Amino acid sequence: MNITQESTQGRNRQRTELKDFLRTRRARLTPGDVGLPPGGRRRTPGLRREEVAVLAGVGTSWYIQLEQGRDITVSPSVLDAVSRALRLTVVERDHLYRLAGVNPPLVSGPEPDEAELARIVDHWAPSPAHVIDQHWNVIAMNHASETVFGYSRTEGETLNCLVAFFTDPVYRGRHRHWADMAPDLVAEFRRDAARHPDDPGFGRLADRLRRASPEFAELWARHDVVSRPQRLKAVDHPWLGPLRFEHSVLHMPDRPGVRLILNTAGADAATAEALERISAGASGRLPVGAP
C-alpha cells in the first residue's frame, strides 16, 4: 500500500467516524431538550437532521452532507453552531473539530486553585516541584524547589521562571549547563507562543526579555521551536554540592496551559540524600544547612 492509499483510507475512516459521531449525538436529544415541539411520531430516536440544521442556522442540505462525511467546506463558526445545536461538551466539540479536519480553538481553563496547587507540589516532596501557567509564571512551588534553584520572591511581583533563568544571577548561576539549556528553553517558549497567537502576554514577555537579556534576544531571533518534556538537569548548589535531576513536564488536562515541573533524583544517591536533608530542615528535624 502506498502513501496515497494510506492517506485516502485515513480520510475515509475519519469521515465514517464523523458520520457516526454526529448521528449518535443527534440521537441522544429529544425535541423537548432543545425547545422544539414533539412534531409527531418518530421512526428513530432523537432529533431530525433538518431540526439540527434549523437550530444551528445552516442549510439542511449542507448539514446532511456534513453528517454523511462528504468533502465540504467547514468553518470554525459553523462547527461551533452545530456544537451548540447538539449540546456538545467542550471535549465533544474539540472531537468534532478534529473529525471535520479543523484545529479546535484553544480555551482558557478555570482559574488555578492556589491551595490545591500547593498541595500538589507539596505531595512531591522531597523532590523539587513547581507549577507554571501558560506564560511560565510560577503559581505554586514547594520548599525543595525554592531551596535547590534559588528562586527569589519579591513581594507583589510575579515570579517567572524564564525571566529568572535569563536575569536572576542566583538562579542562572546554579545551572551547570546554562548555555546548553538556554536555546531549548527559548525554542519551547516560542512554540508555546505560537499556540496562542491571540494572547498578547507572550509578546509582552518576549519584548521584556529581549530588552533585559542579549542572550535571549539572540536566541529569540533564531525562530527555533522544540519540545523537550524530559531532560537531565545539573545544579551546583552552594552548600548541598553538585545535584543531578531528571526533569519532567506534566500537563494538567483540566487546566489548559498549566504544567507541573518535576525534578527527581532518579538513581543519583547523592542528590536523593541532599533532598532528604532539605526535607528534614523544612520539617524542623534538622537545620537545612547542616552538614
How do the helices and strands line up, and which of them pair or pack?
Elements: H1 3-27, H2 49-56, H3 60-67, H4 76-85, H5 90-99, H6 114-123, E1 129-132, E2 138-141, H7 143-149, H8 161-167, H9 169-174, H10 178-195, H11 200-212, H12 214-220, E3 230-237, E4 241-251, E5 259-264, H13 269-282
Antiparallel strand pairs: 1-2, 1-5, 3-4, 4-5
Helix pairs in contact: 2-3, 2-4, 4-5, 10-12, 11-12
In short:
With 291 residues, the protein is α+β, with helices and mostly antiparallel strands.
Q: Largest sheet, order of strands side by side? A: 2-1-5-4-3
Number of domains: 2
**Overall average residue pLDDT:** 84
Total of DSSP H or I helical runs spanning 4+ residues = 13
The CATH topology of the largest domain comes to: Beta-Lactamase
- Helix-strand makeup class: alpha+beta
Count of β-strands = 5
Shape: elongated
Radius of gyration: 26 Å
Could you tell me the strand content as a percent range? 5-15%
InterPro entries: Cro/C1-type_HTH (IPR001387), Lambda_DNA-bd_dom_sf (IPR010982), MLTR_LBD (IPR041413), PAS (IPR000014), PAS-like_dom_sf (IPR035965)
Protein name: Transcriptional regulator with XRE-family HTH domain
Organism: Nocardiopsis aegyptia
GO molecular function, one term: DNA binding
